[in-house]
Every structure is written in C-alpha cells, then in structure tokens.
Amino acid sequence: MNKLRSILLCYLALPYCAFADTNTDSNNNKGFFSSILSKIPYLSQDTGDKSEEKKTAIALIQKYSLAGDYKNAEHQLSEYKNKYGEDDQYLTEQARYFALTHQSARALDLIKPLLQKYPDNKTLVDIKNYALTHPASSAELTTPAVSAGSQSASYSKSVQFYQQAVQKDPNDKAAAIGLVRTQLLMGNYSDASASLEAYKNKFGEDDAYTTERARYYALQGDSQQALTLIEPLLQKDPANKTYLDIKNYAATHQRPAEGFNIQHIQLSPENAAAAEAMGEGDYNKAIKLYKDALKKDPADKSAAIGLVRAQLFKGKYKAAKKGLNHYKKQFGSDDQYLTEKARYYALTGQRSRALKIVNPLIEKDPSNKTLLDIKNYAETAKVAGPGKARVVSPIENATNLARKAQAKKTDPELFFNAAQAYSFAGDKHNAYAMINDALQLSPANVKYLKFKAAIASQLDYKTVAYCTYLRLYYAYPNDPEVHLGLARAAGRLGNLDESAYLYESYIGKYPNESQPWIEYAYIQSWRGNYRAAVYVLDQYRCHFAESQEYLVARARIVATADRPTESLAIINQLMPIIPDNYDLNYANTVALYYNNQPIEMFQSLAKVNQLAPGTQETQGLIDYVRTPYRSNIYLDGYHSYDTDTVKITRGTLGGQYFLSPVASLLGDISAESLSASIRSGLNPVEGGNSLELYGLNVGGNYRFNPHLLLQGLIGGQHASDGEGAFTYKGDAFVKVNDTLEFDIDLKRSFYDVSARAVSLGVKRNLNQLQVYWQPCIQCYVNLNTSYSTFSDSNTMKYLNIMPAVQVLSTQWFNLRLGVDGMWYGFSKQLNNGYYNPENYRYYSFVTDLYIKQSENIGYEFTIGLGTQKDETFVAYRKANDFAGKAYIGIYQDWYLVLSAAESTRGRAIGNNPSLSDYRAYAFDAMLMRRF
Asked: Which parts of the chain are TPR repeats (predicted)?
C-alpha cells in the first residue's frame, strides 16, 4: 500500500518535479519583486545554453537579488558590465539592486531615463514605486543598530546619494525625506534635525515631515513630543504600520534618567554594524566594531558573544578562548556560550569535546541549523590538531576541499565533504553547488540526496526539497529521516493534505519523538482543521508534558480556532520570557482580533511585521486581520421572482468609513422595483403591475470594549405611490465569552415582500435576538427568535434553531452538516400581500460545502432538504433549498460576491392536495472597493 501511494505521489508531483533542478524557487524568497519575476522564465546558473548567455546572466542577477544575496548580485552585475557593457537590461537590474538595498536615490537616477524610453514598462514602474516608498529602510521604526544589522547597503553611501539627489533636484521630496530617515537610522540626530528643518522650509509640515519629526523625538527618548505628533496621524490612518510603530516605540522607550546611558535603550551602531560586517564576511571589521561596542558598554552581552564568534571565524582562537572565559564569568554558561564553546572545540580539532557540548543542545533544539553545522564540521572537517600547523577557518577549509574535489573531478565523496564544509561555513549556495556535483557522479547515493534535500530546504528551494525527498521516499519508505523530511517539505510547498497524511503515519510509527507532534498540529491548523490540531496538542501534552514550544503552538492554534481567552492567558505568561518569538506574536495578533481589541491588535501586527517583514505568512496575517477594518464602498444588485409572478429588483449603493479601529460611519441608498401580475392579487392595490421604493440610511457604530459594540442607522423610505416611512435599525452586539455571543436587533421599515404589501403601507417593527453558541471547536448552534408588529395590526412570533458541525476540513474544501428547524405564526390571516400562516413548521437537513480555489477565491454550495407544513396543509410537503456563492478577491481591494438560490415548496391545502409546487429564484451580485 505504501508503495502504491508513493507511485501516486510521484505522478502527482510531476508538475513540480519535472523542472525541480532548474527552478530553485528563488521567486518564493523575500524579495519584493517576486510576484513580478514569477512571470519571467527562469534560467538556471547551470544552463549550458551559450546562445542565451546574456539572458542567463540577467536571470542569475535576478536570482541573487530576490534571494537577498546582494553581495553576489553586485558581483554578477559587475561581471555583466565588464562583458556586455551598460545596456538597458543591465541598468534595469542595477536599479533593482539599488532599490532593494535601499539606495533609492541611485535607483531613481537610473530609472528615470529608462522610463522616458519605456514609459509603459511595468517592471520599471514597479522599481520606481518601490524606490519612492522605501527610501532608506523598511517602513517600521527601528533603532539605528537594528536597522543597520538587517540591511546590507551602506547608509553612509545612501546619505551621500540622497544629498546629491537633493542638490540635483531641490524639489525631489522623496530624496529629501529619505535623507532624513537614513540619518535617523544611522543615529546622526543633529544632521537629521537640520535636514528636517530644510525639508520644512521647502515643503512645509506635511505628513511625511510630521512622521519623521515624531520618529526623531521617539529615538531621542522624548516620548511626549513623539506621541503628540503621531496621534493626529493615527486618527487619519489608524492602520498605518509606521505610525503604530512610532507610537509603540515612544510609549515603551521613555527618556532615560539623568546620567543613564542611552545605549541601554538602543543597541549601539557599532554593534549592529558589526553584525552587518559578519554577514559580509569582513571579520576584521566586525572584531573592531564589537570591541568598540564593548568599550562603550562592557555589559553588552550581544557584543561580547559576537566578538567571540567573529574571532573564531577569523581563526583567532586564543583571543576567542579568552573571550569565552570572560563571557562565562560575566554572563554565565548560557546556550550562546555553549554554542560558541562547541564551535571553538570543533574549529581547533577537539572533536569529542565539541560533540559532548553540541549533542545535548541539539536534543533541546533538533532543528537548529547552527548546532547541526557545528556537529557536521566536528565529525567531518579535515583540520589540523593542536600543536600542528594553524587550524584553518571554516571557509578556508571548505574552499580547500572544493579545490581538491575539482582537481580530481571523479570522486563524489570529495564534493560531498566540500558541501558539508561550505554548509558549516554558512555558504549554503556553494554547499548546494557542491552536492549537485557529487550527485552528477553518483546520482543514486542516498547520503548525497538527503544532504541535497536538507540544503534545498535551508535555501527555501521548496520544489527541489520536496522532489528530492519524494524520490527518496519512493525508494526508502521506511527510512524515518526521509519520511519526516517529505512531510516537512510537502508542508512547506503547500501540499497540506499530503503533509498531514505523512505526519500522521510518521507519528504512528515513531510516537516518542516530540517535534513532529508540534509540526503536525500546525499543519492541521493550516488546513483549517482546528479541532484535530487541538487534539494533537492534547496528545502531545499527555506524552511529553507542557514544554515552552507546546505552549507557543497552543497559543497560536487556539487563537486561530477563535478561543482568544485561553490563547491570551498563555501569551501573557510567555511574552516577558520570549518577547521576540514570531509565533507568539502571531498568536497575540490573532487572539486580539477574535477578542475584539482592534487597537491592540494593530500594535501587535506591527510587531509581527517587524519580526518577519515581507514573508508570505506575515502578509497573510495582515490581509486576514486588516480586511474587516478597511473602509469601503459597495454596489449590490438583487433580483428575485417566483411562481406567484412576484418580482423584486433592488440596487443598493453603500459604504463604511472607519474613523478609527473602534468607530465607523455607515450609509446606503437604495432603489427597488416590486411587481406582480394583476391576476396574482399581489400587484399594487391602486392598479397596475408595479411600484418603486426608494430608501436612504445613515449611521455608524462604536465599540465600547471587547464585549459590546453598538450600531445604529436612521433613514427613510418612499414609495412611488406617495407612501413614506421613517426607518431605523439598531444593533447591540454582545460577546459574553469565547463561545457565546448575542445580537439584539431593532428594525423598522416597509415590509417589502410584494408590491401589494408596500402599496398598502405595511411597515414592520422587528425585535430580534440572535444567539451564536460554539459548545466545542467548529461546532455551532445558531438561534434566532423575534417578535414583530405590523402597521396593519398583525403580529408575528418567530423561532429558528440551526445546530451544525464541521465534519471535514482539508486544504481545499470544508464540509459542514447540520439541521434546521423553523417555527412561526401570525396573529391574523390578512390579505395584505404577504404569507401569514397561523402555525408554520419547517425542518431540514443542511449541507454546506466550501471549496477553496486560492486564498482570495472560494465557492460555497448549500443544500437544504426538508419538509414543511402550516395549518392549511393536510400533510407535510417537501421544502428544498439550493444555493451557490462565489467569493472573488476575498482580501483584495476589489471584492466580488456572486450568488444564486432556488427554493421549492410543496403545497397541499384543504381538499386540493395536488397543487403545483411553489418555486422561487434569487440572484445577487455585490461589488466592493476597499481602501
């Protein structure tokens, strides 16, 4: 059976795997142009097509740019320039490089002449827009150190080019404000202040000026001034991430007390620049900068361990050993110390000591690639022992092994050793290249294939990793490493149903491994199967107790399952301990969303975006929680008709404008046509077939706290026969707890079910209570009860109960089953154009199927098969309903909902049980534009 499934998996994977080695998923990386370049044919670096060398070279530049490997992108640009000159393709990619490395002025200098030649080129327009909107850093507020540590571009160069841009064009606002922001991120507050004044004198105190002035005060610790400036901006744009970041930073970084070193609040620029130098491989510079940081602040723990790491990578082992002893004495033997101690032993040839330290650390954190690299190096690196010639650095060792392998050319093991060494040295790209060379010589080697799959996963080459593990799984279905690797690769690729199956079978075979349980729970939650995800976590707790990893996973999963109280309790416990944990902050955002705390939610969302900006997961969260708080306008068109010849056509134009996350304005205007044949008796009483009804409503809503939101609308309706009505609608939305909510609804309007009812001036006063109860996760009980009074002295009592349970949740569809019971009756049976039985009863089985085409497109189909009866029926008769909806653009600016429904009701009245069925049809289209 396993082999049969493996064969099926292989066939299903052909669309992915056919080109796995030529498309290494670089477009899935964090680069902002990934969506654009996904439409450009990708050419691998390994292609031998000499007739398209330029195209290959450009594709290689794009690959490195999108992967964030700016050093190699810059190198490839230089190679292209030397070989082909500065043609338009080169200039485009050079501009892209400058934009992505936040050298906006340089990017704009290159883009402007290109746009004059190609004004409609979308890529050029996108580069220009990105450069204009990302002048010096990502949007979030950061300290100079954090920003410098995360950007590979030189801020000093950016300042120089912004200054040149302003000199060249004094009206260039983007360059002027970019200069301010870059100076702030560098910590050059006096220069930034002068640039702000120059901007103010030239362009006035616009929002950009006010934003950077607030940032200036926040970074200087003047919280009161920063908050005074940023609050009015937040009132205009409450979801603006930059504003929220500045507010949050100002609120949590008060001005230090007299004599207190501000470096305790902000990481030093030297420390952050050292991290940048480490990323570029400039270890001498990193050592100098870390030492400068420690001179300023001897208690800088990050600088102390960073200095040790830089010395180890440079090969200064005696100095590193001294630094380790100093760190231990001052900060203790924490995990950072033990990691660098193990690295020291590995690099100095003391393998047994290295393994003795690193193996327990790996048991605590089995997926930590740094620890795994140290272990691999200790086990495999060819290094000189103590007392011999100097011990080579990791990159030197890797380079030497690569040269040896390339010289011999026929020994795959040499290439494999070089791949391992490059991996340990942190050069995953060369590690990937070396393992591919090894596999060319020994294509079926299991050890090599496993290593390739692991490196591809680290490089985020999702398709390569998946197909490599799939190949291994087909050959070795009982290999636990391969089995788990395929489960993880399938999940990363988005094959969630397959991943869930693989995790379930793996845990069945190897139940004593803790990590796969947590991963399996996440996979189930991503499928939308929250009940199963919580069950897996409960099983984990029974097997392994409550670890920190378990608590983080539980906080996130129960939050997405709409159980915010439990989630927030865990979050409040863990946040002081691991404040920068991505999953915990993600959980906090979702929990606050479901707990009706939008202001706090947007603040938490800003933190999530700061921790992992631009990732697909973060963007998905932004779309999910922001969409309900986006101002919008909509146009809705409705048409229905039935076998009684009643036709209703209605058009509505409405909208919602958010004043803040807790307050909004509402309004709509409508025009409606109601008609029926004269023979039906449902036409206007004055004669003719139809009349029109017009309406206008205005109002708003306000959330007082997580438990109460009030909403009200007032307006009027006017019929074409001269009849008018004052209308209103008031709602009180009450959240009792995570499982119970109420909606108390009061409404007055024309009872517009037929032209006759409207022409008689029948108005309805509705008093309604709706109850939403979730007794368990993905179990629902909805109750609707109401009492209505009518202007023709009639009254109506109504009760509807719909219990349902979601029985199937997969990656692509959800299935919910339930029953529906409805009872209502009128006090009088009048001939006023509406159905008013004394005692109506309806019962049905309901099936609701949602099919997900993508995150932004879905289809819903509902079937209700039931029976009905009123006091005039001699027996129960069928009552069947069929409906379909299409949701297009669920989280996008333009949102379209199309729906159609058909209802059939059997009739058996008095002595005429063979009356033909009543049928009604309805169609609706709603188009919304969000802002």
From this structure: 412-445
What confidence tens digit (pLDDT) does each residue in 752-785 have?
A: 999 999 999 999 999 999 999 999 999 999 999 9
Name the token pair of 580.
Answer: 């920068």
Residues 756 and 850 in one domain: yes
CA distance 429 to 391: 24
Domain count, the chain: 3
638 plus 619 within the same structural domain = no
Is residue 138 situated within a structural domain? no
Q: Which of 613, 629, 645 is the last residue of a domain?
A: 629
DSSP 859-906: EEEEEEEEEEE-TTBSS-EEEEEEEEEEEE-TTSSEEEEEEEEEEEE-
Q: How far apart are CA 905 and CA 869, in angstroms?
A: 10
Residue 275, both tokens: 């991290």
Write out the H or E segment, with its range, that includes residue 907.
none
Phi/psi at 513 (nearest 5 deg)?
A: -90, 125
Buried b (16+ CB within 10 A) or exposed e, 148-162: bbbbbbebeebbbbb
Please give the radius of gyration of the chain, using alpha carbons only, rounded to the nearest integer.
33
pLDDT tens per residue across span 6-63: 333 433 343 445 434 443 443 333 333 333 333 332 223 333 344 467 877 887 787 6
- How far is the C-alpha of 57 from the C-alpha of 69, rounded, in Å? 15
Alpha-carbon gap, residue 151 to 468, rounded angstroms: 33
Do the domain assignments include residue 455? no
Question: What integer is the mean pLDDT of 312-338?
Answer: 87
Q: Dihedral of CA 329/332/334/338: which sign?
A: positive
**C-alpha to C-alpha distance for 788 and 751, rounded to whole angstroms:** 11
The answer to whether residue 368 is domain-embedded is no
Dihedral (Cα; 131, 132, 137, 142), 10-degree rounding:
-160
DSSP-assigned letters across all residues of 90-143: HHHHHHHHHHHTT-HHHHHHHHHHHHHH-TT-HHHHHHHHHHHH-SSS-SS---
**193 CA to centre of own chain:** 36
Closest by CA position to 187, among listed 246, 266, 245 = 266
Residue 382: HSE in the Cβ half-sphere, 13 Å Cα cutoff: 12
- The per-residue pLDDT for range 554-607, each reduced to its tens digit, is 999 999 999 999 999 999 999 988 888 999 999 999 999 999 999 999 999 999
Both 665 and 704 in a single domain?
yes
Residues 760, 808 within the same domain? yes
* Residue 889: CATH number of its domain: 2.40.160.40
Instruction: Answer yes or no: are the C-beta atoms of 610 and 245 closer than 8 Å.
Output: yes
Instruction: Please report whether residue 523 resides in a domain.
Output: no
Domain, as residue range, for 916 = 630-930
* Same-domain check for residues 589 and 658: no
Q: Does one domain contain both 410 and 397?
A: yes
Identify the domain boundary among 403, 427, 443: 443
Whether residues 670 and 568 fall in one domain:
no
